[in-house]
Amino acid sequence: MRALRLAAEDLRLWSGSDLISAATFRAGLDEAKRSLSAPDKALVAVFAGRTQAGLTAYLAALELGHAVLLKEDHTGDTRRSLLDAYQPEFVVEGDEATVGDEATVLPGYRVHGSMLGRRVLIRSSPSGGGLHPQLALVMTTSGSSGRAKTVRLSYGNVSANARSIVGALGLEGRDVGITSLPTDYSFGLSIVNSHLVAGAGLVLSTVGPSSQRFWRLFDRTGVTNFGTVPIGWRIMRQLDWQAGHHPSLRLAYHAGGALEAELVEYFGRMMAAADGGFCSMYGATEATARMTCLPPDLLLDHVGSVGRAIPGGRIRLAGDAGAVGEIVYEGPNVMMGYARSRRDLSGGDDLGGVLHTGDLGRLDDGMLYVVGRKDRQVKLYGKRIQLDQIERRLSGIGPAAAVQAGSDTAVVFVEGDTDRFRDAWLATLRALGVPAESLLLRSVPSLPRTHSGKVDLDRLRSSALGG
């Protein structure tokens, strides 16, 4: 039942800048397995994040044949909605819980023990249904925040994706990765899984690349590769980050949304000058994580592409050959299906390894270019228009996000003064052939973002409608 095959005796794991010995890690893993032991398959909610306790609880649960629900945001509303919907048998709490404080125990649970200083709770009454034997992970999607909708992933999904990423990025035992993203985000967890499967080292960091603490830790531990989402790369560009200041770095990559072509080229050339490489990748929680990779040696010849399918996967378009169509991914990492409640966790494989992504793309010489979302197409004054296309036209000036605000109206939110966007906005109106009253320009101090760094379109849509 194990999703990840680990050689614990060779494990190189850092908690911050402290190297954890393999013997210490194994002792913690054994402690966690004792705390999570149960006669039947159980769901384990882990709120301990990117810590030694969080990683140990995750791996112990998988070794025991349990399923895991990961959430780093362990605040009241988020935690409560997930616990109510999925009724996990065990809860490994975050650092806000005091081991000996019985007064703060979650309703419906009692203290069962502790592991690595984190309190372990057990459910006081039976859960509302069984779990599918192959269920390994219950993951919230990047756009679902604390809502109950999740993705059901099998042991096979997790293992296949980890091995494919090892192959796509050429990860080896000599490499060292770092937790640059939350582990309840599929891209962030994929970084963890791929390094563990490769036998590479892993640094547990609770801060991201926008922090100087991250880079001091990066250099002290000799990290060789890391990835982050587009907002992270934009911030690093603003901070004038330089790859050459980090001698151990050989590979960097982005996923989790579109990164502007000029930034892909900028960081691609920077990494090449530092004898390293930069990769563009594309993925979805529904495919466990990443689905494609554009390797460094092809990057500058195909800027704007996300490359080809990872090993074991296949990309095709639904529609006429040569035209823009819905991106369809096939592979062993495609989810079993969605879930909204505990009773859904007993379900089997609903997709059969085929994922209709909802993204629109085109193929050019076998390279995939993502051009937008099916559900981001609107009709303004009789013309069908992709909101993603509007955003791309303005993104060269600064961050921009477009949402529909009525039957014939869209609003483009931009960061800062609208005056600097006005020429690009007027050019967009002319190119689309729509009047100014159909495409409104509105300024915000900063675009709201989800936990994974993506623009929170629901909040912008509510604002556009006056909510």
Automatic annotation (TrEMBL):
SUPFAM superfamilies on file: Acetyl-CoA synthetase-like
Pfam families, sorted: AMP-binding
Residue stretches making up the AMP-dependent synthetase/ligase domain: 42-338
Superkingdom per UniProt: Bacteria
PANTHER family named in the record: LONG-CHAIN-FATTY-ACID--COA LIGASE, SURFACTIN SYNTHASE SUBUNIT 1
Descriptive protein name: AMP-binding protein
Originating organism: Actinomadura fulvescens
